[in-house]
């Protein structure tokens, strides 16, 4: 009795293990993007733009969940979602610029546009999830 209702997913969502996994995905996807962007040229370029969008979607989503917001975690930084997403996109642009100085690579505006699609989709997903969770009814509270 007397406990204040909370609009959270549950105690399992506060697990440090979940945070560790999200950070691992964020750091792993960042490392993979750096390797595949600045390392040896990949063998096939047939789906290059789709790979850019997918890689940046996964990376931006993991970073947004790790840094900005995850359901059930206290102290979220919801107001920083757009600036964090822009930082991921700027990093993608800087990688494209760096590729221009590599012999086996070239910089392409189309690659950065594909990065932007992935980042935008991740940002929209986080905003939609946050909106849906914040508006769901809390059990045990009469309206």
Short description:
The protein is mainly α. The chain has helices at 16-38, 48-68, 81-99, 109-135.
Report the biggest beta sheet as strand number plus sense, adding barrel if it closes: none
Strand content range: under 5%
- Secondary structure: helix percent: 55-70%
Taken in chain order, the helices and strands follow as HHHH
Overall mean pLDDT stands at 81
Principal-axis shape: elongated
* Tally of DSSP β-strands: 0
For the record, the count of structural domains works out to 1
Which residues form runs of ≥5 with pLDDT under 50? 1-11
Structural class by sheet pairing and helices: mainly alpha
> What's the oligomerization state?
single chain
N→C terminal distance: 19 Å
Number of helices: 4
Rg result: 18 Å
Describe the structure.
The protein has 143 residues and is mostly helical. It has one domain. The chain is 63% helix and 0% strand. The chain has four helices and no strands. The radius of gyration is 18 Å and the shape is elongated.
Write out key terms for the chains shown:
single chain; 4 helices; mainly alpha
Topology of this protein?
Blueprint: H1 16-38, H2 48-68, H3 81-99, H4 109-135
Helix pairs in contact: 1-2, 2-3, 2-4, 3-4
């Amino acid at each position: 009795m007397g406990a204040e209702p909370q609009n959270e997913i549950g105690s399992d969502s506060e697990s440090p293990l979940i945070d560790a996994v999200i950070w691992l995905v964020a750091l792993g996807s960042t490392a993979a993007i750096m390797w595949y962007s600045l390392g040896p040229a990949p063998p096939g370029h047939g789906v290059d733009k789709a790979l850019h969008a997918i890689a940046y979607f996964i990376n931006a989503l993991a970073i947004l969940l790790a840094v900005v917001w995850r359901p059930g975690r206290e102290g979220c930084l919801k107001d920083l979602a757009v600036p964090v997403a822009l930082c991921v996109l700027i990093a993608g642009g800087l990688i494209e610029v760096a590729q221009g100085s590599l012999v086996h690579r070239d910089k392409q505006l189309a690659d950065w546009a594909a990065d932007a699609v992935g980042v935008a989709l991740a940002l929209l997903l986080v905003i939609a999830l946050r909106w849906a969770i914040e508006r769901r009814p809390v059990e045990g509270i009469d309206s």
